[in-house]
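Design request, tokens follow.
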């Protein structure tokens, strides 16, 4: 490691609102910032379009980094076991390792978009001693309303997938709620069909490997009307909007759910 090399300033764009707002917020504060996007090869079209918009706005390349191998490779490596909340090998191999490879052995400050109104969240902290995390929104006291204002005032607004989904990430992300699987089917039926092909039934053990806990995507879709009705009823009882984008703008932001992979959704 060359101690005379300048410190690198890195900011990852996930396709989510918080990392986008942070990039806008830091653009003029740290002119030497390097922006990157860990492309898994399974991103939503809306995410890729938003990253392109961000690149135009920032006036600087957002470097696409990837593992050099796609999801299918790692799926075979894990003997066709789908990733889950307990085994998040997708995040490790397709997001975290590519980031640490990108950072190399350089001294790095990594900027993370966790807000001041998220005291329970720490974000991804690298075990590498050369990578130091900073949280500008926490440092400056910025909360959800500030993030929405930053995006709106920039002219970019929110990514379009918020109209039917509460977070960024792969199209087959296992953290999706059932209503979001319905949203995927309605907005990208081809991706819904592609996600179905990953599901397996092991005849030897009788075990099913499905994206949505407890049922296959075919079974989820067969309950489409029931799921929509329950979603609307639940939101009416809690006085939340039926629209996922409106809930992001309101007090019950779904991507604040601690269960999500922060490196993917921020």
């Amino acid at each position: 490691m060359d101690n005379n090399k300048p410190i690198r300033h890195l900011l990852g764009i996930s396709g989510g609102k918080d990392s986008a707002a942070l990039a806008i917020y830091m653009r003029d504060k740290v002119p030497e910032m390097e922006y990157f996007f860990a492309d898994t090869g399974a991103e939503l079209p809306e995410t890729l379009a938003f990253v392109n918009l961000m690149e135009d706005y920032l006036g600087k390349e957002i470097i696409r980094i990837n593992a050099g191998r796609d999801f299918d490779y790692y799926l075979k490596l894990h003997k066709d076991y789908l990733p889950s909340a307990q085994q998040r090998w997708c995040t490790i191999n397709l997001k975290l390792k590519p980031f640490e490879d990108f950072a190399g052995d350089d001294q790095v400050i990594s900027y993370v978009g966790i807000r001041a109104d998220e005291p329970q969240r720490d974000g991804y902290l690298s075990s590498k001693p050369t990578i130091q995390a900073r949280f500008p929104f926490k440092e400056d006291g910025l909360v959800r309303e500030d993030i929405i204002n930053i995006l709106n005032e920039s002219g970019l607004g929110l990514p379009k997938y918020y109209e039917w989904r509460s977070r960024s990430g792969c199209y087959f992300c296992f953290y999706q709620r059932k209503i979001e699987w319905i949203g995927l089917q309605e907005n990208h039926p081809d991706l819904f069909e592609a996600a179905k092909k990953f599901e397996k039934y092991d005849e030897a053990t009788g075990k099913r490997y499905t994206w949505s806990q407890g049922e296959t995507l075919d079974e989820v879709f067969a309950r489409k009307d029931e799921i929509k009705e329950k979603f609307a009823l639940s939101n009416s009882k809690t006085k939340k909007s039926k629209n996922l984008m409106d809930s992001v703008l309101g007090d019950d932001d779904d991507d604040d759910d601690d269960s999500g992979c922060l490196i993917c959704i921020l």
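Comment from the thread starter after seeing the answer: thanks! Residues 251-259 have pLDDT under 50 and may be disordered.
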